[in-house]
Write a structure and sequence with these properties.
The complex is a heterodimer of chains A (775) and B (99). Chain A has 775 residues and is mainly α. A two-stranded antiparallel ribbon of chain A has the order 1-2. In chain A, strand 1 and strand 2 form a beta hairpin. In chain A, helix 4 runs parallel beside helix 6. Helix content of chain B is 79%, strand content 0%. With 99 residues, chain B is mainly alpha-helical. The chains are: A mainly alpha (775), B mainly alpha (99). Chains A and B meet through helix 30 of A and helix 1 and helix 2 of B.
């Protein structure tokens, strides 16, 4: 059966899908308005940020609705063509590069998440950063940050992708270093920037390699350049590419993902990025920036699929990195006292799950985990911000300044617990449906070892989140949350709050304690928390595999169907991609040649992946592990932190093995020491010394020899030519020069701008002369 | 081909850049103005390349972009050092070359 032209044309589209490129454009324009006019606006620019993000959300929502219609208008196994619109970016000679949008299920789901979380974070920031010194700049950077992520998501080509990627890198630097007066903050911003840059090299190399490797094929078969993501995907699955080339390209791209998504060993920047304001951490860790790396892998999945031969092996580069990241980050989360750092390591660990899923062929569960993780992690971060804003006096230290907050902050507490349960993967909450699917599918695809690592990670996640919850909300109140104020925390964590002095003065008078004790935050903070918590609770139901196929909505909407599509290059007969042959099997298990063998004719845009059949027995196992983690950690926390059990207190000091482990974790596996002391010093030390030696001995040696020769020679010249011939001339001309110099001396004012003006006016006169001569 | 429009824009950019170099006291702003001048030149190159239909102008423009990046790197390094030594980056205070 050949799917007729009409059948393909009936795929519905709509205004929102056709104009999805507006989604990143609107906040980008918002950024310029804020940065240029923000300070003059009544709400200092925050209203523009909020408005532009909300418009993006509306546009993204409309696009999502129309995409669902489009999917429903096509056949069940039919490849749903993305909505593509391109513009010429650069055309010269025979080369033509286009930039544009390509909207498919993956783009739509990430667009909605990013726009939604960005809107909530902006709303939250209007309260959280009230009175901040650089309030306007903060909103400008936040808006541009979201614009970068959205541009990356809609991109049809690696050029726009790279642009969005770099915009995010820049904005993360500005936002992490928002309070740069504190040296630690600007160091953290620099560290984040440089670490991510290290990975970014990989993206440049990968993009360039893919272009040169695939350009001929894509031009011939699809009429697009080697920068087109669709073209690269089809090329990677065509059986054409050289396996070494595609492997190296995949490794290079994955290195970029390691840097951006904070995977081992470049994860060290993420916890330090906590130096930024909490809304930034929330946005950075839930839906933008760190998700970019995962998105890169999901977007160019065919490259990784072919390059690493994902279904053919039991372990590859991606799964190894993902697996290591899950465990080491979760272990680090146990020794942190800063509530935001616990969440940071938890993010690193969850990103490890996404990578593991992608590496093991569980594409859909990994993408679904991006979706659910965004909601509950944003909620957790905003919850931590709410605590520090209203209860613990800008401190994030769980052991010193928190505890017993569940009674004074009921909304924050409830939303926190819901999100924690979602993160741990407890049954009806969203995390269960995504994380358990990843673990299940990883095992199903033959990566048994990594399934076990995933289960260990789930246990650790449950345990460290229970510890953090216990320290924050249970037990007796300590430090600031008990009403004490320590001044050092003011300065350490919110140096740029302008209202600070008045705060301190207020405290000194001690007239109004009710205002400063722990209390619930205002509606602009709690509303985002409640919305996110509702989604953390319910968003899993959008792809609830346990309840049968009818519930797998995200799978229907997002997963690209692996159908062989006949494409004709533009200009050929038919003039568009209207011919399509369906996959081999008509019924039963859908089985397409995509990915497993080379299609004879036509192209594939997505590899054929399998889904593990859901079994309650496996789910029960992982749920049991999670509950065990929660129970053990609860017991341990009660004994250690509240009862001060003699057997546990100070255990790490008494037991040598535990002490060694504790030191290893406290020092973050000494990776920071490795980077800063060994690598940086190696470059700054020996290489600089070698250059100095070369300079001193080799270059100077040559110089000295030349100098000696020329001294002998010049002595002779001096005696014979200089004294007799030249001097006579010079003495006379010297007299003339002295006269002229006296006249011109004022011109040498030493002011650079005057020199510049002289230079330019001389050039202008010369140009004028040229024009007159030539005409 | 609308070469004229490109040239007018380039000329405008160039003049703004020259004004910045001559009139501004802040060294960083002067560096930025130099960037404007370079990019005005770039625009001319690209406009003529488009007009003549060959890639030489594009290549030139790419070279200029790369060199401009290096120039800014060196320039900002100088500004940083000047600031460390004198706590100012006002160009009027740097008149050691007065004859």
């Amino acid at each position: 059966m050949i799917r007729s032209a009409e059948a393909l044309q009936t795929l519905s589209s709509g205004w929102f899908l056709e104009h999805a490129w507006l989604i990143p454009i609107v906040p980008a324009i918002g950024f310029f308005i804020i940065i240029l006019f923000g300070k003059k606006l009544p709400m200092k620019g925050s209203e523009i940020g909020l408005l532009s993000m909300f418009s993006s959300l509306v546009l993204a929502g409309g696009a999502a609705m129309q995409w669902i219609d489009r999917v429903n208008s096509g056949g069940k196994e039919q490849f749903i063509a993305p909505v593509v619109r391109t513009w010429n970016w650069w055309q010269v000679g025979g080369m033509k590069f286009t930039i544009g949008q390509s909207i498919d299920g993956l783009a739509v789901i990430v667009l909605v998440v990013v726009a939604f979380i960005s809107t909530l974070v902006q709303l939250y920031s209007t309260e959280y950063l009230k009175g901040d010194r650089r309030y306007t700049h903060f909103f400008a950077a936040l808006t541009l940050f979201s614009a970068g992520m959205l541009a990356m998501v809609v991109a049809d080509d690696t050029i726009l992708f790279l642009l969005g990627w770099e915009i995010m890198g820049l904005c993360s630097f500005m936002l992490i270093g928002h309070w740069w007066e504190d040296g630690a903050n600007s160091r953290a911003a620099l560290k984040a920037f440089f670490t991510v840059r290290t990975g970014d090299m990989g993206l440049l190399v990968g993009v360039a390699m893919l272009y040169f490797a695939s350009n001929d094929w894509t031009t011939e078969h699809l009429g697009v350049s080697g920068f087109s993501i669709r073209g690269i995907s089809a090329w990677a699955l065509s059986g054409e590419p050289n396996s070494t080339v595609i492997l190296v390209a995949a490794v290079a791209l994955f290195i970029a993902a390691i840097g951006k998504s904070g995977q081992f060993p470049l994860h060290t920047w993420l916890p330090d990025a906590m130096a930024g304001p909490t809304p930034v951490s929330s946005l950075l860790h839930s839906s933008t920036m760190v998700v970019a790396g995962v998105f890169l892998v999901a977007r160019l999945y065919p490259v990784f699929f072919t390059g690493f031969d994902i279904l053919g092996t039991g372990g590859n580069f991606i799964t190894v990195i993902g697996g290591i990241t899950i465990v080491i980050a979760a272990a680090l989360a146990f020794v942190q006292n800063d509530i935001k750092k616990v969440l940071a390591y938890s993010t690193v660990s969850q990103l490890g799950y996404m990578m593991l899923g992608l590496g093991a062929g569980a594409w859909l569960p990994a993408v679904f985990h991006i979706f659910t993780h965004a909601f509950f992690k944003a909620c957790l971060f905003l919850g931590a911000g709410s605590i520090s804003h209203s209860a613990s006096h800008h401190s994030f230290d769980m052991k010193k300044d928190m505890g017993g907050l569940r009674k004074v902050m009921p909304i924050t507490f409830t939303t926190w617990v819901i999100s924690t349960l979602a993160l741990c993967g407890v049954f009806p909450f969203s995390g269960f449906f995504s994380k358990d699917e990843i673990i299940d599918n990883v095992g199903h695809n033959g990566y048994q070892l990594f399934m076990i690592i995933g289960l260990i990670g789930a246990f650790m996640t449950a345990a460290y989140m229970t510890r953090a919850t216990y320290l924050t909300f249970f037990g007796e109140a300590r430090g600031a949350s008990a009403g004490e104020h320590h001044d050092e925390h003011h300065d350490a964590h919110a140096p740029a709050h302008d209202d600070h002095d008045s705060h301190d003065a207020h405290d000194a008078h001690a007239t109004d304690h009710a205002d400063h004790g722990p209390h619930e935050s205002g509606w602009r903070i709690t509303l985002p928390l409640v919305l996110l918590a509702v989604l953390a609770l319910s968003s899993g139901l959008l792809n609830a595999t346990p309840f049968g196929e009818k519930w797998e909505r995200i799978k229907t909407w997002v997963e690209p169907r692996a159908e062989v599509v006949m494409e004709t290059a533009p200009g050929g007969p038919g003039h568009s991609n209207v011919l399509s042959i369906p996959a081999a099997a008509e019924e039963g298990h859908h089985d397409s040649p995509c990915g497993s063998e080379t299609p004879e004719e036509g192209v594939c845009y997505a590899p054929q992946l399998q889904h593990a059949p859901f079994k309650w027995s496996k789910a029960m196992l992982s749920l049991g592990i999670v509950f065990l983690g929660i129970a053990l950690s609860w017991l341990f926390s009660t004994l250690l932190y509240t009862r001060k059990d003699k057997r546990l207190v100070g255990l790490t000091e008494r037991n040598g093995v535990l002490r060694a482990g504790y030191n290893l974790l406290i020092n973050k596996y000494y990776l920071d020491a490795l980077y800063e002391n060994v690598i940086v010093k190696a470059i700054a030390g020996p290489i600089a010394a070698a250059a100095y030696w070369f300079n001193q001995n080799v270059l100077d040696g040559i110089l000295h020899a030349v100098a000696r020769v020329s001294r002998v020679f010049s002595g002779w010249v001096y005696r014979n030519i200089d004294q007799r011939v030249v001097d006579g001339t010079v003495n006379n001309s010297g007299k003339a020069t002295k006269g002229a110099g006296g006249v011109l001396a004022p011109v040498q004012s030493g002011k650079v701008s005057q020199y510049g003006a002289l230079l330019f006016s001389a050039a202008a006169v010369a140009a004028l002369v040229l024009v007159i001569i030539n005409s | 081909m609308l070469v004229n429009q490109f040239l007018f824009l380039a000329a405008l950019l160039f003049c703004i850049g020259v004004y910045g170099v001559v009139a501004r006291k802040n060294a960083v702003l002067v560096l930025m103005s130099i960037e404007l001048i370079l990019n005005a030149v770039n625009l001319n190159f690209v406009a003529f390349a488009l007009h003549n239909g060959n890639a030489d102008g594009h290549t030139f423009a790419l070279y200029i972009i790369a060199i401009a990046a290096a120039e800014v790197g060196v320039g900002l390094g100088l500004v940083l050092l000047i600031f460390r030594n004198r706590r100012t980056i006002s160009l009027d205070d740097l008149s050691e070359m007065k004859g």
